[in-house]
Structures are given as structure tokens and as C-alpha cells.
Write a sequence for this structure.
């Protein structure tokens, strides 16, 4: 059991299970992109650990880029706006693989896909380490899913609770 801020978390997915799932994904992606040089586009902060392990297991040439969706409060609307930062590389005519730590409702992914599509990549696919099928509200196809999990809040392996827990090598879930 671990405590982060005011909450308690219990072990949920082991490091070896996560690493095996990533290896399987990397094998699949290596086959699908054989002869191509895809750009792995990591979505910070959460995807850093997954991306490292994914790339170590990827066989073939590939490139790396990062992006981050920074939230800010727009003055004209009541909602929270998001701004895409980073991504200095030109992705036009390149195969892009978005690398996400987790896809929950899919709002973030949809937003990102819309912005990236304007930059005219040759293709865009998505790899996510974790996926919550019961929370997902979008129709965007997610080609590479590491581990499907129930609609519960998790931390570890890059994922945080209010800034803490990203360094944990295994995944914990909120204790109920
Ligand atoms: P979305 O709902 O798919 O847009 O997910 C938004 C973001 O919420 C993700 O990129 C994560 O940063 C965060 N998130 C969603 N579920 C979890 C979780 O279980 N633990 C930690 N962060 C999460
Ligand atoms: Mg994230």
C-alpha cells in the first residue's frame, strides 16, 4: 500500500506484466511499420516511461518527438482550453504514432488527432499503454492498446495523482 497526498493506493499491475504488454505492442508495431521510419510522438508528461520501454523494444528505424497539451483558461469561453506545445519536427508526409500513457474518455486523443491531422502526416495511429473501455466516449480507433483496465483511477509507470506517483515502476489503483 502507498500513500500519495491524501489517498491510499494498492498494487494492481506488476512491472513484469507491464513490460510484457509493451514488448508485445513493440513487436506488433515493428511488423506493421517494417521498412518505414515512423515518428513516435510521446504525449508528456505521462507517456515518458512507456515510450522509453516501447522504443527499446522496437525493431527498425524510428524517430522520436514529444508534445504536451498545456491547459489554460481562455478569456472568451468558460471552458478550459488546451494548447499543443513542443513538436518542432515537421511531420508532413511522415508516419506518426501517438504514444499515450492512458486513454480515458478520449477527449485528449480526439483533440490531439484534430490538430495533428492539419499538419498532413502520411498516417496517424495511436498506441496507449492503458485503456479504459467503459470510460471511452469517442469513435477514434486505437490501434495499439497495451492493457485494458476497468474504470478506476490508477497511478505509477508515468501516471500521476496530482503530480505524484509517476516514478513507480508498477501500477497501483485507488483503494476503495
Ligand atoms: P481523457 O479523458 O482520455 O482525455 O484523459 C485525460 C487524461 O487524464 C489522460 O491523459 C491522463 O493524463 C489523465 N488520466 C485519465 N485516467 C487516469 C488515471 O486513471 N490515472 C491517472 N491519470 C489519468
Ligand atoms: Mg496524459
Amino acid at each position: 500500500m502507498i500513500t500519495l497526498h491524501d489517498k491510499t493506493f494498492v498494487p494492481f499491475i506488476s512491472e513484469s506484466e507491464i513490460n510484457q504488454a509493451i514488448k508485445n505492442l513493440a513487436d506488433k508495431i515493428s511488423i506493421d511499420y517494417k521498412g518505414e521510419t515512423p515518428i513516435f510522438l510521446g504525449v508528456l508528461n505521462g507517456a515518458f516511461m512507456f515510450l522509453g520501454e516501447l522504443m527499446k523494444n522496437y525493431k527498425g528505424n524510428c524517430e522520436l518527438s514529444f508534445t504536451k497539451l498545456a491547459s489554460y483558461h481562455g478569456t472568451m469561453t468558460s471552458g478550459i482550453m488546451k494548447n499543443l506545445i513542443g513538436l518542432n519536427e515537421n511531420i508532413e508526409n511522415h508516419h506518426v504514432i501517438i504514444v499515450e500513457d492512458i486513454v480515458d474518455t478520449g477527449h485528449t486523443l480526439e483533440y490531439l488527432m484534430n490538430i495533428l491531422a492539419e499538419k498532413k502526416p502520411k498516417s496517424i495511429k495511436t498506441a496507449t499503454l492503458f485503456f479504459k473501455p467503459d470510460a471511452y466516449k469517442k469513435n477514434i480507433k486505437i490501434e495499439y492498446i497495451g492493457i485494458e483496465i476497468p474504470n478506476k483511477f490508477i497511478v505509477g509507470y508515468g501516471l500521476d495523482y496530482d503530480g505524484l506517483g509517476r516514478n513507480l515502476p508498477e501500477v497501483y489503483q485507488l483503494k476503495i
